[in-house]
Design goal:
- With about 475 residues, the chain is α/β, with parallel strands linked by helices.
- It folds into 4 domains: about 130 residues, Rossmann fold (3-Layer(aba) Sandwich), CATH 3.40.50.300; about 90 residues; about 50 residues; about 160 residues, P-loop containing nucleotide triphosphate hydrolases (Rossmann fold), CATH 3.40.50.300.
- About 40% of the residues lie in helices and about 20% in strands.
- The strands form 4 sheets. It has a 6-stranded mixed beta sheet with strand order 5-6-7-3-8-9, with helices on both faces.
- Helix 9 runs antiparallel to helix 10.
């Protein structure tokens, strides 16, 4: 029996079709990767499985005995509790069982009625067995093990949740989800906020995980290590492939070739029928045969035109600048209420390419936001040469008006551009014609990232400040242009 089953799934966002009468099943032991190009509906499917999104049509059935956990990075957390207190929340049911055990044991100590005492002893035994079966007395060590594996101990289990950066917060939420140990994990791009060593730890965890999972990831190397089946979204349909990620890629390539062959054959057949209809429908002697072919054409189940993934091409315009230092940073302290890093001093000259590295949550994004003037420095200073023009890429997909289309976002930023030039620029970044006119909020994370990169590409600048630009886009396509 399946753990979760979705049948007859049909869903759209406005005019954008996502799924059309498709299905997906997850069985016990499945470690499933969910793949597909940007915007096909991977995150939407996860949200449908969790009930966050209600599909237009379709039936979602979870096995009533199955528990699932979803990494919802938008969930609200009490900002006043510590990281350790938040992680302990994964074991709330055990702590409540311990409270009940203590209460029952106190009542046993005072009980003088034999019948009542017998009942209390039975309850006490049940509580004790439950705690031991779930390794309750090793909760603290389990929390520390997962926290260390995901790099949480680096910023401290005693840190208030309210002081965490976005990446740190996501790590803590992932840690709690893993500690809860549900039957099914639903993970949407869990490696985006992890460093290499923590991705390695997560891979080992998932390989040894006794339950099942569905994971969305753009990291093919990560998927090849942890999955034993793939569900691929294409042409509004979900197709299942058993076996490794590499096996899936081979099968998909063969399937694509077969589909293209069938599509081309059908197009020739349609053209042939239409030509006959056009030439014979008006003749009295042949109109019956023409009408017969028209009915055949109308009944034909037409194949969708194959969509070729648009390969993005990123080219940044350079604005000439003198060879003086572009940026001088002197004893700069960054943070919010307290410094996150030691005082920073550096000089950046024209032509230099600087990488800002460090474990997740240490303050890399805070440093970049500070030197971009988005948040104030705690102390120290930074100074740009007067002719420096910055192209800043923010890690988060945040828009002033998410109701705007990708087209209008670029057009308002560059009003002198012709409409066809705007469309061409977005196309070079990998957006298809129909995506250009979609609202920003309906685009996938990768598609939104490409809109942001397009804005930077159109702006002649001499200093790029990029915060995790490869999280959602093709790494090779972008890095080859930097």
């Amino acid at each position: 029996m399946s753990l979760v089953e979705v049948t007859g799934l049909t869903h759209s966002f406005g005019d954008k079709k996502i799924f059309n009468n498709t299905e997906i099943k997850l069985f016990r032991g499945d470690k499933m990767g969910l793949t597909g190009r940007n915007g096909v509906g991977k995150s939407t499917l996860i949200n449908i499985l969790t009930g966050i999104v209600i599909p237009d049509e379709g039936y979602i059935k979870w096995n009533p005995k199955v528990t699932y956990g979803y990494l919802d990075q938008q969930a609200k957390i009490d900002s006043d509790i510590t990281v350790k207190e938040y992680l302990k929340g994964a074991f709330d049911y055990l702590f409540k069982t311990e409270e009940r055990l203590n209460d029952v044991n106190n009542r046993i100590a005072k009980c003088k009625d034999k019948n009542e005492l017998k009942k209390l002893l039975e309850i006490s035994g049940e509580c004790q067995n439950m705690l031991e079966a779930n390794n309750f007395y090793a909760v603290n060590s389990e929390i520390e093990k997962v926290a260390a594996g995901l790099g949480i101990t680096a910023f401290g289990l005693d840190t208030p949740v309210g002081r965490l950066s976005g990446g740190q917060r996501a790590k803590v939420m992932l840690a709690k989800l893993l500690l809860q140990n549900p039957d099914v994990l639903l993970l949407d791009e869990p490696t985006n906020f992890l460093d290499r060593e923590h991705i390695e730890w997560l891979a080992k965890f998932l390989i040894s995980f006794k339950g099942s999972f569905i994971i969305v990831s753009h990291d093919s190397g990560f998927l090849s290590r942890v999955v034993n089946c793939i569900s691929d979204i294409e042409f509004y349909t979900i197709s299942r492939y058993n076996g490794t990620y590499e096996n899936f890629m081979r099968q998909k390539e063969q399937k694509a070739e077969n589909y293209l062959r069938n599509y081309n054959y059908q197009q020739k057949e349609i053209a042939k029928l239409q030509d006959y209809i056009n030439r014979n429908i008006a003749r009295a002697s042949t109109t019956a045969m023409a009408q017969s072919r028209r009915k055949k054409l109308e009944k034909m189940e037409k194949l969708e035109k194959p969509v070729t993934a648009v390969k993005p091409s990123f080219t940044f315009q350079y604005k000439t600048i003198s060879r003086k230092p572009l940026l001088k940073v002197r004893s700069l302290e960054v943070g919010y209420t307290e410094p996150l890093l030691p005082k920073i001093t550096l000089t950046l000259r024209a032509g230099q390419k600087l990488a800002v590295t460090g474990f997740n949550g240490i303050g890399k994004s805070t440093f970049l936001k500070t030197i971009c003037g988005i948040i104030p420095a705690l102390s120290g200073s930074f100074r740009y040469e007067p002719d420096v023009v910055i192209g800043y890429y923010e890690q988060e997909n945040v828009w002033e008006d998410p109701e705007k289309t990708a087209f209008s976002e670029i057009k308002e930023e560059y009003p002198t551009m012709r409409d066809r030039e705007v469309r061409a620029s977005l196309a070079r970044c990998g957006l298809r014609p129909e995506q250009v006119m979609q609202k920003l909020k309906t685009l996938s994370g990768g598609e939104q990232a490409k809109v942001k990169l397009c804005k930077i590409m159109l702006k002649p600048c001499n200093l790029l400040i990029l915060d995790e630009p490869t999280n959602h886009v093709e790494t090779v396509a972008l890095m080859s242009r930097l």
